[in-house]
Amino acid sequence: MKVVVDMNKCQDHGQCVFAAPEVFQLDANGRLAYVSDPDDALLDEVEEAADVCPLQAIRIEA
Amino acid sequence: MAPTSARVVVAGASMAGLRAAEQLRAAGWTGAITLVGDEPHMPYNRPPLSKEVLAGKAPFESLAFRPRASVADVEWRLGTRVVASRLAERTVVLDDGSELSYDGLVAATGMRPRRLRCPGPLAGRHTVRTLADAQGLRAELTRPGARVVVVGAGFIGCEVAATAVGLGAAEVTVVDPLPLPMVGPLGELLGRALLARHKERGVRFALGTGVAGFAGEDRVTGVILDDGTVLPADVVVESVGSLANTEWLGGNGLDLTDGVLTDEQLRVGGRPDVVAVGDVARFPNARYDGVPRRVEHWCIPTDTAKHAAKVLTGAEPAPFAPLPTFWSDQHDFRLQSFGAPALGMDDVRVLEGDPAGDVLVGYHHDDRLVGVVALGGPAIASAAARHRADLLKQPALTA
Ligand SMILES: Cc1cc2nc3c(=O)[nH]c(=O)nc-3n(C[C@H](O)[C@H](O)[C@H](O)COP(=O)(O)OP(=O)(O)OC[C@H]3O[C@@H](n4cnc5c(N)ncnc54)[C@H](O)[C@@H]3O)c2cc1C
Ligand code: SF4
C-alpha cells in the first residue's frame, strides 16, 4: 500500500503515531516522519491512523 | 451473519454516523446500511470550523471526510430528518412521512448549540456547529472594523475569539459568568494561564457576569450585561454549550436526559439492536467511576463506533473504556489533553514547565494521575503524549 500525508495539513498531532507506530513517528523536533510504502499487513493500523488524524491529512492508496 | 435483506439504519450522517458505517463493515456486517442525515452535505470535519476554516487558512471543501472504500455501497439519505421512532416495531419515521424498518439502529444525531433566551434582536447573533454557521460567521467577522462579543468562555468560545483577533477584528470581548476561561474542564491553574495568554494577544474579557439582553432594533448593536453595561457589538457569537438531538427517540421509554443513556456496551434501553455513538451518547466509562457522561471530544465518534459496531453485530466485547483525548488550538498555542482531568480537580500539579510559559499539568485522584493537559507549543504536547501510555495502563478507577 502507499501512504501519503498532506504535509500542508499535518499539524504534528501525533495521533497517527499511537495508531501505527511502525509507520508513523515524530522526530526529535516533534515533526512527523513516516514510511510511504508500508507492508499491506499493516493496513488495519494505517486505516486506524487515517481515522484518528484530526486534520484528516493521511491518504491510503491501494 | 446478516440475511441479505437485513438493514442497519444510522440516524445522523456526520462523523459518528460515517464511522459507524465503516466499523460495521469492518465487523463483518454485509447487510444494507442506510444513513439518514438532515444536513445536505456528506460528513465533514467540524474542528476547523472554529479555527483554520473560520480563519480562511483552509477552504471549506477541505473538510469532507474521505469515506473508506468498504462503504461505497451504503445508502445516503441526506437532507432528510428522522422525526420519530418506534423501537418495539424496529421502525423510524422520516420527515417526508415515510418509514424505514431496521434490524439494527445506530443513534448518531449529535448536538446542536444552546441559544441564549434573553430579549433583543436575532440578526447578527451566531453559533458555530455547521458549515453553514461558519460560512455565515466568517462573512461578518471579515468586515473591516468588526466589534465582536463572544458569549461563553468554553473551548469553542476561546477558539472563535482567538480566530477573530487573528482576522483583525477591531475589538474582541469574551463574556462568561465564571471567573476564568475553560475553568470547568481545565481548573483554575490553567484557566488563569489561558486568561493571561488571551489578554496578551488582544482578547478582552468580561468575566463573572451573565448576559441580560441584546441591544439593537433589527440587528444586534450591543450586548447588555447583568449590571446594565452595554458592550458595543457588530457580531455576537453564542458558545454557551449544546443540547442533544434526541427528540426523535421520544415515546420509547428511554432515558433522554442530556443525551441517550447507554449501558457499558453502548446499547440503548437494554435492546440488543439499538446503540448510540458520538456526542449524543451518554455512556459509563469502565476506565473511571461508572457514572454515565456525554463526551464532546473528536476522538469519541471513532471510539464509540468501533465498539458499538461489534456489539450490534452480536459480539460481547469487554466494557467500553476509552481514554478521552482532546485538543484545542487558540492563537499560536495548543491545549492537548489525555485522560479525565475533571476527575482530578482537587489535586492539580505542574508536572513540567511553568504556567507563565509552556506547561504540563497533571490531575490526580487519590494520589493517582487521572489526566494531563499541556498548554503551549509542540514540545510540551509531546510531553503530554509521553504520559498517555501510563494513563492507558492504569487499572480502573473505582468511585
Ligand atoms: C466548531 C467546533 C469545533 C470543535 N473543535 C474540537 C476540537 O478542537 N477538539 C475536539 O476534540 N473536538 C472538537 N469538536 C467536537 C467534535 O467535532 C465533535 O465531538 C464531533 O463532531 C461529534 O460528531 P457526531 O457525529 O457525534 O455529532 P455531529 O457532528 O453533531 O453529527 C450529528 C449529525 O446528525 C444530524 N442530525 C441531528 N438530528 C437529526 C435527525 N433527527 N435526523 C437526521 N439527522 C440528524 C446533525 O445535523 C449532524 O449532521 C468541535 C466541535 C465543533 C462544533
Ligand atoms: S495525526 Fe495527522 S496531523 Fe497528526 S502527525 Fe499524524 S498526520 Fe500529522
What does this protein look like?
Chain A: Its cofactor is [3Fe-4S] cluster. The complex is a heterodimer of chains A (62) and B (399). Chain A has a single domain (2-61), classed as Alpha-Beta Plaits (2-Layer Sandwich). In chain A, 24% of the residues lie in helices and 23% in strands. Chain A is built from two helices and four strands. Chain A is globular. Chain B has three domains: 7-112 and 243-312, FAD/NAD(P)-binding domain; 115-240, 3-Layer(bba) Sandwich (FAD/NAD(P)-binding domain); 332-393, no CATH class. Chain B has nine helices and 26 strands. Chain B has helices at residues 15-26, 52-55, 131-141, 155-166, 183-186, 188-200, 299-312, 378-386, 388-393; strands at 7-11, 32-37, 75-78, 82-86, 91-94, 99-101, 104-107, 111-113, 125-126, 147-151, 171-176, 204-207, 211-215, 222-225, 230-232, 235-238, 242-244, 260-261, 274-276, 281-283, 293-294, 325-330, 333-339, 348-353, 359-365, 368-376. In chain B, the strands form seven sheets. Chain B has a five-stranded parallel sheet with strand order 3-2-1-7-19, with helices on one face. The relative contact order of chain B is 0.13. Chain A binds chain B through residues 9, 11-15, 17-18, 26, 29-30, 47, 50-52, 54-56, 59, and chain B through 19, 22, 45, 47-48, 58, 62, 65-66, 68, 298-299, 302, 325, 327, 329, 378-379, 381-382, 385, 388. The structure holds flavin-adenine dinucleotide (FAD) and iron/sulfur cluster. Flavin-adenine dinucleotide binds at residues 11-17, 36-39, 46-47, 49-50, 81-82, 108-111, 128-129, 156, 245, 248, 278-279, 296-298, 300-301, 326-328 of chain B.
